[in-house]
Amino acid sequence: xxxxxxxxxxxxxxxxxxxxxxxxxxxxxxxxxxxxxxxxxxxxxxxxxxxxxxxxxxxxxxxxxxxxxxxxxxxxxxxxxxxxxxxxxxxxxxxxxxxxxxxxxxxxxxxxxxxxxxxxxxxxxxxxxxxxxxxxxxxxxxxxxxxxxxxxxxxxxxxxxxxxxxxxxxxxxxxxxxxxxxxxxxxxxxxxxxxxxxxxxxxxxxxxxxxxxxxxxxxxxxxxxxxxxxxxxxxxxxxxxxxxxxxxxxxxxxxxxxxxxxxxxxxxxxxxxxxxxxxxxxxxxxxxxxxxxxxxxxxxxxxxxxxxxxxxxxxxxxxxxxxxxxxxxxxxxxxxxxxxxxxxxxxxxxxxxxxxxxxxxxxxxxxxxxxxxxxxxxxxxxxxxxxxxxxxxxxxxxxxxxxxxxxxxxxxxxxxxxxxxxxxxxxxxxxxxxxx
Length: 436
Hints:
By secondary structure, the chain is an all-alpha fold. The chain contains 19 helices and 2 strands. It has one domain: Amino acid/polyamine transporter I. The chain has helices at about 1-35, 40, 45-55, 65-80, 80-95, 100-120, 135-145, 150-160, 165-180, 180-200, 200-230, 235-245, 260-275, 280-285, 295-320, 335-340, 345-375, 380-395, 400-425, and strands at about 125, 130-135. The protein has a two-stranded antiparallel sheet with strand order 1-2. Helix 3 crosses helix 15 (about 295-320).
């Protein structure tokens, strides 16, 4: 019965992402790209300059947190297991062509994410803790002129804030590779998650800012090394990607083949999921920044998508394509590990720790947003209720198929994307693409 239920959810998920959300992202993304004069390309050098300039800006005892700490939390929630494991499901089920649609989601999603952060910054309010409260539940009030839609989005963000997929992958990876007692591991991870998230965005920012640079350097180095060793295969792989994006992909090896709709659905949905495009999570986080220029803080979202989709996700997929691990009948969580293990020793020790760092930074970042949303809905007991819900959800999904958890997260993200992007469209005249 459970398998049948999730199979039905998979069908709904494929339809929503492959038809509805695909059209929304493409149409709105093209509209903003043309309206801004290809802002994500034209202004990219200046965006990089703004990003580097924030490194020289000292943290002051003022309202909000340092812009780069907000960025670290936002990117910590995006760059994680979804970029290494979740994104590989797009290729495992949809074939190499899914990578092309992930790129499309990333390119157009840069401006969509910029827009939601920009609106979050302009509609945020000061709170009693010396920070700010912002996000879609604030700017959607103006977009729809009612309270029930922002409340629904806030509730969905609470559900989305309990990252059951990554939690389950962490548990499976560590117990499989290190033979750790599953119950003890779940209890330990729950305690670590609650402790970090209870400190709010500031504490999560400290954790993420120390974890993410290590991840990026190690993963990029190892991935590029393997791609250089297999440089003669790259043209062949890219041909598979572009050809598979527009034609049905036949069965090969353990790959069962896929339709064009499935390829589009998986590429777009996994790209949006890994990059948090249109979800609203980043808008909540960036709104806590001490920056006073909305466009400059929002421009960091473009950097985030570039690192997330065009660097990390692309490297993950290229790894499994050039090594042919995507064709092998193994669990998705082991695909990248298998690819890296062909060239680097001790991957069975490294990868679980690696996934733990990635998953932990993402889980605590999402959880911090969930707590803020719960407090927004129920100022008195929101935090307590949310902790109770999180404990149940994390434990239950630790014993479920990771694909089922990913489907649940993907559907919640699909609903958030539809509502948020419709609201952003209605407020489109407020969005300025001006970094001066």
